[in-house]
């Protein structure tokens, strides 16, 4: 089966996920839109098991049956966690409009549920077959109706998808400007997913009001997902290659500060990869038997991801030079007057074609300020939780008391 539909049975499985994700980042230069379903499935696997242990429910068996169907049909699954959230300082039930978080609006006679609300920023959901809906935060008893997990086919009646705009997105629609697109092969997309009375049958409901498990589910999902941002090391590999290539083309690659900046890019990028791999290698079994990455290290990984791609982008833009943002477009290069002038004045190092110089500059533009800057930069900042969300987990898991004991012991302090 596809590894994206596989439940991790060992730390080695988690490590193989990480290798796959970096490799796909390298091959696409963007978000390849699939890790969120894999991470949701793994978090749901163990959480449904734990709920059943406490409540005697049958969510785990339901989830297994659903996942087996997904595996047999090789389906793509989107993971829908982030609600639109309204006023961030209010809980779901405190909001002026109850639909600002996805919730159970009413119940069906067959035991099924009817959902209302909206999920924001949904990666790849539009081009998935199914989505797994989950709450996005630890909830209290007053928010019982918001503690809902279920599977929904993408084309279920009552769902409206609203497509997000991206920087430079119209370039992909212009005819004859393949170079200006920067990466004409791959790009990601996100949608807002609105649920207006979407019916879900009981066999596809995997959590219904068990508020005490919402925090655990979010913590587990983010442990998988924050470490999944190893994909950005794959994009960083592309950036390093682009930074080195543009330096070769400009004739600067032997300058000591250029070499040092390439080393800095590699160092930052491998730090992302190293912490992701450490989280995977440190995976431990949950009571359900599947493996969960090491939570502290997964959060350290994602915290690095909120910063390092921005620094790598800055360094690459430094090496690229000003043509990164003043380069004329495809139409100018094929213009009878401007085209000839550009061929003459856009020459850099001997033997390098102007077309190749344009191509590498456009790729860097695409990844640092064009369509795929969504996948390389902004998604690195907010995807799987904005920076502060990781710091909350790091604060909880850094075990200050144990660290104080170490220091006091060496200092000879007796209290
Ligand atoms: C490209 C992209 C792809 C994504 N893909 C998916 C996906 O496939 N599935 C999915 O479920 N989600 C997805 N997300 C959503 C992502 O998890 C959220 O963007 C993230 O959790 C931040 O939420 P927000 O966008 O609502 O920002 P906000 O919550 O508005 O955060 C903005 C700022 O406000 C701060 N803040 C927010 N609430 C509080 C508070 N109560 N107190 C103090 N400070 C606060 C934050 O720390 C941050 O600094 C994606 C996001 C992006 C950008």
Automatic annotation (TrEMBL):
Residues 2-207 form the HpaB/PvcC/4-BUDH N-terminal domain. Residues 215-412 form the HpaB/PvcC/4-BUDH C-terminal domain. The keyword rRNA-binding does not apply. Pfam families: HpaB, HpaB_N. The keyword Flavoprotein applies. Keywords: FAD, Flavoprotein, Oxidoreductase. GO terms for molecular function: oxidoreductase activity, acting on the CH-CH group of donors. PANTHER family: 4-HYDROXYPHENYLACETATE 3-MONOOXYGENASE-RELATED (PTHR36117:SF3). This is 4-hydroxybutyryl-CoA dehydratase. It comes from Polarella glacialis (Dinoflagellate).
């Amino acid at each position: 089966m596809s590894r994206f539909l596989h439940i991790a049975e060992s730390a080695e499985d988690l490590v193989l996920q990480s290798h796959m994700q970096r490799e796909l980042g390298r091959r696409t230069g963007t978000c390849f839109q699939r890790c969120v379903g894999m991470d949701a499935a793994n978090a749901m696997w163990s959480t449904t098991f734990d709920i059943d242990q406490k409540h005697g429910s049958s969510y785990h068996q339901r989830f297994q049956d659903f996942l087996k169907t997904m595996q047999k049909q090789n389906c793509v699954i989107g993971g829908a966690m982030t609600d639109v959230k309204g006023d961030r300082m209010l809980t779901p039930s405190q909001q002026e409009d109850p639909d600002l978080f996805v919730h159970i609006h009413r119940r069906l006679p067959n035991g099924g549920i009817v959902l209302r609300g909206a999920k924001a920023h949904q990666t790849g959901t539009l081009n998935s077959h199914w989505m797994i809906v989950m709450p996005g935060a630890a909830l209290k008893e007053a928010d019982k109706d918001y503690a809902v997990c279920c599977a929904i086919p993408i084309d279920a009646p009552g769902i409206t998808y609203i497509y997000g705009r991206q920087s430079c997105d119209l370039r992909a629609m212009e005819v004859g400007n393949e170079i200006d697109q920067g990466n004409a092969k791959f790009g990601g997309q996100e949608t807002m997913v609105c649920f207006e009375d979407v019916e879900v049958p009981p066999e596809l409901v995997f959590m219904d009001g068990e508020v005490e498990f919402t925090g655990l589910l979010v913590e587990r999902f983010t442990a998988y997902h924050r470490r999944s941002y190893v994909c950005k090391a794959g994009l960083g590999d592309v950036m390093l290659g682009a930074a080195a290539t543009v330096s070769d083309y400009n004739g600067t690659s032997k300058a000591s500060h250029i070499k040092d900046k390439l080393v800095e890019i590699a160092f930052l990028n491998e730090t992302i990869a190293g912490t992701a791999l450490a989280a995977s290698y440190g995976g431990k079994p949950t009571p359900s038997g599947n493996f969960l990455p090491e939570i502290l290290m997964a959060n350290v990984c994602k915290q690095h991801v909120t910063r390092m791609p921005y620094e790598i982008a800055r360094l690459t833009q430094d090496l690229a030079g000003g043509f990164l943002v003043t380069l004329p477009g495809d139409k100018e290069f094929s213009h009878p007057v401007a085209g000839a002038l550009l061929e003459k004045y856009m020459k850099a190092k001997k033997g390098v074609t102007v077309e190749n110089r344009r191509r590498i500059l456009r790729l860097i533009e695409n990844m640092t300020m064009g369509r795929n800057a969504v996948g390389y930069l902004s998604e690195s900042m907010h995807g799987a939780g904005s920076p502060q969300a990781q710091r909350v987990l790091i604060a909880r898991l850094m075990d200050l008391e144990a660290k104080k004991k170490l220091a006091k012991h060496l200092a000879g302090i007796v209290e």
